[in-house]
Specification:
Layout: H1 6-11, E1 15-18, H2 23-35, E2 41-45, H3 51-55, E3 59-61, H4 67-76, E4 81-84, H5 90-95, H6 97-116, E5 122-124, E6 127-128, H7 152-171, E7 174-176, E8 178-180, E9 182-184, H8 197-207, E10 210-213, E11 221-225, H9 226-238, E12 250-251, E13 255-257, H10 259-267, E14 274-277, H11 282-287, H12 296-302, H13 310-322
Parallel strand pairs: 1-2, 1-4, 2-3, 4-5, 5-7, 6-8, 8-12, 9-11, 10-14
Antiparallel strand pairs: 11-13
Helix pairs in contact: 2-9, 6-7, 8-10
The structure holds nicotinamide-adenine-dinucleotide.
């Protein structure tokens, strides 16, 4: 029998996405189904997702904190790789600290332990710029620096990073991670984060011509268009294992902007658009995060390069949401 080449082995792997119906999971599932085949990419969540996702391949109702149920699905579909997208995000986590901690940590331990026991071979787990805190250098925040997160979400992400690093060095687990900035997308609404304003604003600009922002006009945060985030996620998972030098999580950057700047970019297409400001509890969270991120390591180790700036993002968002 002819030996299988590396590419054909790569193309044969079965993938499970946990939390597939959320903002990132939906687009990631669709992109992975394009890259591999629909049947090789199993979507799962505690609720059903949009039509595109449900109609394009296998779907299972699965609670990522339930180890036995997870193990059963992994065995049934002969899963090789897991993408853990289930989590409670920053703004919601401030309201339900213990639920956030339990979901964010137990789901991670479940997939790390599956890999430790050789039931799966690789894991993608997303971290966030929320791992940084008020004492972190705000401009061009380095890969390795003071962290000290001040939110429940940030504490869970920083702990998660330490556990990923530990499982890699102690047990040889191939877990790869990115610190996503705020993500902007049009296919699915965001799920309770502090950067959600940068999606809502486009919807409101088109439906009402005005938007009341929950952050102050000069709050500068790192952001990324979803296409870039999905490309980065697939790139880090496809790169040769020897290229992955950072086993906590990689800094990743595309652009930084304020609510005032995004409003101005929308006005280029919708001149009558108006924005007002009514900051709430999320301002405190945003104030604890960096203004911009240094992603030199991601560029050097696995060739990361962003494609979308604010202008291109605004054009894509308005064009797609109009339909
Ligand atoms: N969206 C962003 O801007 C952003 C930025 C940084 C990091 N992240 C991280 O990326 C990951 C995905 O984020 P998202 O924006 O898609 O979140 P989301 O809230 O949009 O989606 C999360 C999904 O997880 C599902 N879920 C909740 N509890 C579950 C459980 N017990 N078992 C299985 N599924 C469950 C939800 O139903 C939802 O569909 C998270 O880890 C998040 O922290 C997101």
């Amino acid at each position: 029998m002819k030996a299988k080449g590396f590419n054909s082995i790569l193309m044969q792997k079965n993938i499970l996405i946990l939390g597939a119906c959320g903002q990132i999971g939906t687009e990631l599932t669709l992109a992975l189904r394009q890259e591999y085949s629909n049947d090789q990419v199993i979507a799962s969540d505690i609720r059903e997702g949009g039509e595109n996702l449900m109609d394009s391949g296998p779907f299972e109702i699965l609670d990522a904190t339930d180890y036995d149920a997870l193990e059963e699905i992994v065995a049934y579909y002969e899963i090789d790789e897991v993408y853990l997208m289930a989590a409670m995000l920053s703004a919601t986590a401030e309201k339900f600290p213990m639920r956030a901690w339990n979901l964010n940590m137990n789901s991670l331990f479940n997939v790390l332990n599956l890999a430790k026991d050789k039931k799966i071979s690789s894991i993608f787990w997303p971290s966030s710029i929320a791992v940084f805190g008020p004492n972190t250098p705000k401009m061009n925040t380095p890969q390795h620096t003071i962290m000290e997160p001040s939110t429940v979400y940030g504490i869970s992400k920083q702990s998660g990073e330490r556990w990923c690093n530990y499982y890699h060095h102690k047990y040889g687990v191939d877990v790869r991670s990115i610190r996503y900035p705020g993500l902007i997308s049009w296919k699915t609404m965001p799920g309770g984060g502090t950067t959600d304003y940068a999606v809502e604003i486009y919807h409101k600009a088109l439906s009402d011509g005005e938007y009341t922002c929950f952050l102050k006009e000069d709050t500068n945060l790192p952001m990324m268009f979803m296409d870039d985030a999905i490309r980065a996620t697939m790139a880090i998972m496809k790169t040769d294992i020897t290229n992955i030098k950072e086993r906590s999580s990689y800094n990743l950057a595309a652009m930084s902007f304020t609510p005032d700047q995004i409003a101005r970019s929308i006005k280029q297409s919708i001149p009558d658009f108006t924005i007002t400001y009514n900051p709430d509890f999320r301002q405190r969270i945003a104030d604890s995060w960096p203004n911009s991120i240094d992603d030199t390591e991601a560029k050097a180790d696995w060739g990361w390069k962003a494609e979308f700036d604010l202008e291109k993002t605004t054009n894509e968002m308005l064009r797609n949401l109009k339909h």
